Amino acid sequence: MRLENKVAVVTGSSSGIGEAIALAFAREGAAVVVNYSRHEDAAQKVLQKVEAAGGKGLVVGADVSDPKEVEAMVQQAVGTLGRLDIMVNNAGMERKMPFLQTPFEVWQETIAVNLTGAWLGCQAAAKQMVAQGEGGRIINVSSVHEDLAMPTNSPYCATKGGVRMLMRTLAVELAPHDITVNNIAPGAIETPMDAPLEQNPDEMKELLSEIPLGRMGKPEEVANLALFLASDDSSYVTGSTLFVDGGMIRQGGT
Which of 57, 130, 239, 253 has its CA 20 to 30 A from that of 177? Predict the structure, then answer.
């Protein structure tokens, strides 16, 4: 049990990658806060799976772009489960459209959720970890698009590039407190966010041609890496982006 007696918050864990991470952590002994912003019923189902796997946890609704709600989520985790050891900033969104037609409101919303949300989660978690005095793990779920350009998705790419430098800076600043900070950068993963691709054979064929391994990844493959970064196995890893993308980032020339 690599995470026995640990407490983790996983934002955006009512589905997809976040759900897979929450379940992987629970199977390894962690108590998990399942966070949602809109779909409480889905989050409750994830909690049921956590408990069925022998884990424990709670469901907490919070808008990750709201500092008061993020702080309240961390305090609820600590108040109910006793501490905070692992913070996974997974919540995210994207709305693809040509740059010249992108409304300012889309830019603002994407920045608020993807970048401000990660910053707030990092800060609230780090404050608690420093107060505990026992170190901690902060993991941001970024994207291959923190490095790889994606036309028609400029707000999303900008936020993920921002999360890259946020992680690198915090890794150095928080290292004296034994808090590691790393990014996971998924490529094309079979999640609700990428579901529309599966309905378009031409787009799917084009996507797969960009992936050296020739397939989309599974949420569990991202969760396995998150488990490594959350555990003592990664105690000397900080300030890094680890790609889970079937080689897409290399095919893209970066």
Answer: 57
CA angle 138, 70, 86 (to 5 degrees): 25
> Does residue 56 surpass a pLDDT of 80?
yes
Asked if residues 13 and 43 have their Cβ atoms less than 8 Å apart, the reply is yes
Dig out the tokens for 65 from the structure.
Answer: 């772009």
Residue 253: pLDDT over 60: no
56-61 vs 31-36, strand pairing mode:
parallel
Could you give the dihedral angle defined by the CA atoms of residues 180, 142, 27 and 126, in that order, rounded to the nearest 10 degrees? 30
Q: Which of 14-23, 145-154, 194-203, 245-254 has the lowest mean pLDDT?
A: 194-203
pLDDT tens per residue, range 59-68? 999 999 999 9
Average pLDDT for the chain: 96
The Cα 47–Cα 174 span in angstroms is: 31
Based on the residue annotation, tell me whether 36 is a catalytic residue of this protein.
no
Looking at residue 46, what is its pLDDT? 98
Looking at residue 201, what is its pLDDT? 85
* 32 phi/psi in degrees, rounded to 5: -125, 130
Q: Which of 156, 166, 219, 227 does the annotation list as catalytic?
A: 156
